[in-house]
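Is 5-amino-5-deoxy-1-O-phosphono-D-mannitol placement plausible here? Inputs below.
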Amino acid sequence: MCGIVGAVAQRNITPILLEGLKRLEYRGYDSCGVALHVDGKLQRSRSTSRVTELQAQIDQTGLAGFTGIAHTRWATHGVPSSANAHPHFSRERIALVHNGIIENHEELRTELSTAGYIFESQTDTEVIAHLIDHLYHGDLFEAVQQAVKRLSGAFAIAVFCRDEPHRVVGARLGSPLIVGVGKGENFIASDAMALAGTTDQIIYLEEGDVVDLQLQKCWIVDNQGKSVQREIRTVHAHSGAAELGPYRHYMQKEIFEQPRAIADTLENVTNIMPELFGDKAYGIFKEIDSVLILACGTSYYAGLTAKYWIESIAKIPVNVEIASEYRYRDSVPNPKSLVVTISQSGETADTLAALKHARNQGMLHTLTVCNVATSAMVRECELAYITHAGVEVGVASTKAFTTQLAALFLLALSLAQIKGRLNDEQEAGHIKAMRHLPVAISAVLALEPQIIAWAEQFAAKENALFLGRGLHYPIAMEGALKLKEISYIHAEAYPAGELKHGPLALVTKEMPVVTVAPNDTLIEKLKSNMQEVRARGGELYVFADADSHITASEGIHVIRLPEHYGLLSPILHTIPLQLLAYHTALARGTDVDKPRNLAKSVTVE
Ligand code: M6R
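Reply from A.M.:
I modeled the complex. Tokens:
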């Protein structure tokens, strides 16, 4: 998704801006650009290609300067084109980059057109540049403070002005923005990762903040225009461009990192205790009588799996809601509910807004399961469990999902313990099983050659069905999402018992039906559902386990996972589905790590 980098320094900042853009590349974008203050003028370079292309363009023109801003754009309003790429200029005086969506852009466009501004792009962003110019009377900081009062929607912006060569102004509301504090130089970015290697002294701007960056000054006002001090934190941000090592793609690397990621996520777990989720967890867990989970995409499927665990182990009722729906729905708030957000990035706009909505409704006990310790989600929740998946670069979530599952299983156990539903023997058994997970996952990864053989058959298909039951229905959904997002094969998941209520009409010999079939309590029911598929000529691709007692026969292909893993089986059964999606996409020649139209962190609504 869109990324921002900006700087005011006494050295040429072009390399810093370009390096920052490269570090943000993995989030997904379709155009990029840089603008600098050069000899009393604004100059820019934009490209609808990759950042390396932009760099080549800049190398040719020799664009260099001490003050400037840069951007990667993921199109929302207007097609990916040079004219729509940021930075946007107003009257050759104001240069601006923007993340987010301005909801009242049409109204502002009409007003500014009447005032004589000529629009060169189809973006919502350009109105902000013109609005700031319109309100500019010699003080950029003042003009930006006035302008943001007129904006509705979500934004993070960085702006500079031809007439104030050593100043960059930033503002945020609903989209993240950070300041990097240097010595005699200052920086701004949408993510601390963009500044890795430049500065580790980071200020996280709060909602409504406007910041004035000059060489020796970093001045912040809040949404009331009151001067505020924000804490400077030392942040060791990782580079987004982690080494690929022997792998062809980040997704492949991240799939194979899962034994390590799970081990790291569970590293401090020697016994079950609420304090794993924060100092105040004991009191909160004691008080709550239900759980509300809010998340999007893959993280939502982790939430659906957690519902099964929490209800069956802790006997606490759980609702799981898609964040973008929940935030606009009239729901009945329960102040005794624990609100749990799940997010890899911790910056997903819909999930953050849903969290805020829950809080506004009086649900004040909040916990996040998140992979980024410095993210907005972690800062805004009372309790947190940080998954230690490490930086996930591939757009398709893999190790983030399985580590979320590990953390959510722990949550189920901790809640069960507090509610007196976990005895010592059960606790010891669960801890032993969790400790063994990295080894068990490695054994599943070794099935890769068999999965590649299946993937070659899948590559020729345009549709696929995924079936699961109970605890494994969300895993089937995750398998379908993985396949569709990176191979572009249409895939849908159903709880297998639901087949006969409609989707069975789709089943022909052309329809591969992937079945998640560990030996759980529903296995016999699932076998009957499989027969319904076979009777209609459908080809079954079954991920069974050591105890499932399903044998291969005509139209039934079976890959057997080496162990039966009980309640934790969803974690193991996710792995072959990831590999199937990866190898199918590879065979189809898609851009696995950056699938079309998608972004890694979805920071707009
Ligand atoms: O960072 P988050 O976990 O909040 O992101 C939520 C979804 O955007 C994300 O899981 C998305 O569905 C993935 N691309 C799926 O692989």
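Short version: The chain is about 35% helix and 25% strand.
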